[in-house]
Write the structure tokens for this entry.
Amino acid sequence: MTQPGSREVEHEITIAAPPAAVYRLIADVTNWPRIFPPTIYVDREARGTHEERIRIWATANGEAKNWTSLRTLDPEGLRITFRQEVSAPPVASMGGTWIIEPLGPGDGSRVRLLHDYRAVDDDAESLAWIDRAVDENSRSELAALKRNVELAHAAEDVTFSFEDSVRVSGAAKDAYAFVDEAGLWSERLPHVASVRLTEDTPGLQELVMETRAKDGSTHTTASYRVTFPHHRIAYKQTTLPALMTLHTGYWTFREDGAETIASSQHTVTINTDNIARILGPEATVEDARRYVREALSTNSRATLGHAKRFAEQRAGR
């Protein structure tokens, strides 16, 4: 029986895919920023045979939050249970279970997502806030899970990843500082027309940027960034150019002897609905992949080049 001030809720969806395939996608948390719209980044802090501790950065009711959860994985039973170890207010406690059930031979799967939670001080307004966040995020995540699993075997691969790197004769912390200080990019990078960086929670940034393209046009993007001084900055765009439905990635800074290898990684999903409008009626998915990769790599290489010069100047090179 549910206690006063607490909730137990359930959401479900059917997916035209084998239960094992659905389970694998949920079990690997590195997939989550790509498949779940609310998830910004997930860091696996500890991992055992069937248990793991993860830290999640995600949006709830339009606000960026982060928390730590313990998960127990049961691949034979097709269940994953989770319990927040450190919650973010107004959540006092939260847990639940992913349950994947076969519908019958060739009939796909039913996915049930259970939550139980309490609000800080059992506050009614806070509980209502959590109700809205859980309902919105659960519906969004289940719909995205269905879409990603069912499109996994599509003939044309619209999701792809790539990376650009430079070798820096300087310290990782200095190359990292250039990317971390994105609020100065409009002064430091020619392709950035304007920028606004906020960091109300240490290590969690919101970046809104107007970028210039080769043809002189500009477009605005918004991203959340999670920083790990002085070696990694992960991000997820929430306002995207028209040719993309997903753009996540990370900047990494790895010391290699007296030098540093600075890299920019991107994972992108092409918005096929906009290919003809932007690239012409004869354009293909492959054309869109090349176009997007060139545009993103051009900006990444420019940023990496400026970070290299910045770090090397600080090193007196």
